[in-house]
Each structure stands twice: as structure tokens, then as C-alpha cells.
Amino acid sequence: MPKLDEGAKGVYLITVTPFRDDGALDLDSLDRLTDFYLGCGVTGLTVLGVMGEAPKLTAEESRTYVKRVLARVGGRVPVVVGVSSPGFAAMGELAKSVMDLGAAGVMVGPGAQVRTDDQAFAYFEMAAETLGPGTPFCVQDHPLAYNGVQLPVPVLKRIFQAIPTAVMLKHEDWPGPGLAKLSAIRAAGGKGEIRRVSILAGNGGGLFLPEELSRGADGAMTGFSYPEMMVGVVAAHAAGDVERAHDLFDAYLPLARYEQQSALGLAVRKYLLLKRGAIASMAIRKPGPRLSAADIADIDRLIARQERRLTELG
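and the corresponding C-alpha cells:
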């Protein structure tokens, strides 16, 4: 499988981590889940992300998880691995391990200690040194997940100017500069201020996906229990049918919005994946939320409304 590069596009689906009811990794469900994602037409997979409960896994479990996904994928699509860590030693160890196993690249978010623009740039410079010249990486710009750490446009431009192995931006700065930041990075590439890099939209379920595609995003790198929505929206937009992309997105938006509740979202996603037959249990490793009967009633109502709307769209 070729390594991640600036030409990456499409839908890189952020995966969940299946657990059994007793909290152990469910590798059989992981195989089924991987098949489910590939069957939805995704371009690539991103594992050990924020919604993948990566901090709850041991180092050995993380390697086991990645090895199992890569074996199941069998080179059909690229796999990116989240390696963010409080320390560079752990980051470097995991990155080397997964790249040796066949990962296409890794994803890195800023450290919690970052407070200034210079510190942010220095952090990614040190991360690149730790990863080494043979490991391309995605810069994850997600302040909500990284203690509010900001990566303003000037910092991102410095990163992409100075670090050749930084080949992708995962754009999910919301609430915040959002679409304006995406436009600014694309404009900088158009003016030759930086090389053109891949930009994939985050914001779970692609909450602004049609607009981000119109601003120059190359696709999506996020999670949703209906990956076929993102696949369809990206394909329609690439074909020039922007209205179709918006109509399709709108049909799924209520459920995507519900799935983005900050405390409950992962439980919603796992419930939906369970209903769709992709995993055997909706268990979340402790600590984690649980759905109430009222939550489940909300979700089931949204599913029914979504199905009616999709039938209308044809």
C-alpha cells in the first residue's frame, strides 16, 4: 500500500473500537466492522482516533487492533493510525510499529502543553523528527479534543512550509475559524506560499461537509454510523452535482447532529452500528456513557424519518 501523500482524497472513515460486554477487545466484531466500512465504499480508514477510545487501550492492545485491521483490509485501502501521545517516546514507538505493519501514515494532534504559536510549530517540528523522514503524517486541528489548543492559519502555513512529511490537514476547528481557515489554507496553496496539501474535513459526521467541499476540501476524515452518506456526498460533489450533495447530506443531518452530542455521541454511534449488524455489542470501555430508553426512542424515530427521506430522494 502506498504511503499517505498530498494527493489523498475521498472518505477516510474514523473507526470505533468494538468491545465485548466485559470490556475486552472484540476482534471478531472488528473484522465484521472493517468489512462493513469497506462495503460502504470508503476510500481509507483512520484508526485509534478520538472516537476510537484510543486512550483507553493499552499499548499492546493498540498494536493488536491495528494489526487486525490491516490484515482484514489486505491492502485494499490506506489505513492511517492516530499516534497522538503526551510524550514523544510513546508516539515514536507506536508509529514505528504501525508503519512496519503496513500503515499508510499517522495522525498527530498538538500537545496539551502548547499555548503559543511558536510552541505549536515547535511541537509539530519535534513530532516530525520523532516520526522520522519515512513516516508521512496528518496534522489534526481539533481544539475541542486537544484542550483548546489553537492552530491558526500562520502556524499551519509554517508547518506545511517547513515539514515535508506533514502532507495532510484534518480540518475540524469548530466552533472557531472553520470554513475561513480552510479557504485561507487553500488560497495559500494557490499562491505558492505553501505546497498544496490534502485537506480532509472532520467535525463528526461531516456537519459542514458540503460547504467544506465547496471551499476546497478533498473529502472527509470523520466518523458516522452511516458512512455511505459521506461517500455519496463526496462523490456527488466531485461529479459537479452540488445540489444532489446537499440533498443527500440534508437527509442524514438530523441523525448526524444527534450523534454529535459531546457526552453521548459515541454511545449513539455504537448503538446504530449494533442495529446495522456491524458490531456485536454497543459496549463502551469505562468510563463511558450509556443510552436511556428515551435516547433510544429518539434515535429510532430519527432512523425512520431518515429512511423515508432517502426513499423520497431515490
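(Above: one complete record from the training split.) The chain is about 45% helix and 10% strand.
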